[in-house]
Design brief:
This protein is of the alpha+beta class and about 130 residues long. About 20% of the residues lie in helices and about 40% in strands. A five-stranded antiparallel beta sheet has the order 1-2-3-4-5, with helices on one face. It starts with 7 loop residues before the first helix and ends in a 9-residue tail after the last helix.
């Protein structure tokens, strides 16, 4: 039997255990516009299982990546991305807190600032919360 959607209480118990930077850099296009290429994986303390159209899917991470010039989030596991399912704002807030920690001078994200992007997503103002 598969687990249905987790309750808020269950989601709040899941922690971000580790952060893996797969890609993170900026570049300037021909018109002088700055762009960010980002792909960061945030590992969950426990995998989440969901069933869709009779198939069971397991996710063990949330990815933060760029999509059409916007920072967005998607569920994933080692083999597959599920970026079309909206990520819970509970996880977005946990990731935001981890990113703030990692933006310290000794952190993995020193020199980077994603505050504006997180505010857009948490307030529902982002054009791309999931990839579609």
């Amino acid at each position: 039997m598969t687990q249905t959607a987790l309750t808020k209480k269950e989601l709040k118990k899941i922690e971000i255990t580790e952060m893996e930077i797969k890609k993170l850099y900026t570049w300037q296009d021909m018109e002088g516009e700055w762009n960010t290429d980002i792909n960061i994986h945030f590992m969950l303390s426990q995998p989440c299982t969901f069933e869709l159209l009779g198939q069971v899917h397991n996710v063990d991470r949330v990815k933060m990546f760029d999509q059409y010039g916007e920072i967005t989030f998607g569920y994933a596991n080692e083999n597959k991305d599920y970026c079309c399912f909206p990520v819970s704002k509970i996880f977005i807030d946990k990731i935001r807190k981890r990113v703030i920690q990692e933006q310290r001078p000794d952190g993995m994200l020193k020199g980077w600032d994603f505050n504006h992007e997180f505010l857009d997503v948490l307030q529902g103002d982002s054009l791309v919360v999931s990839c579609w």
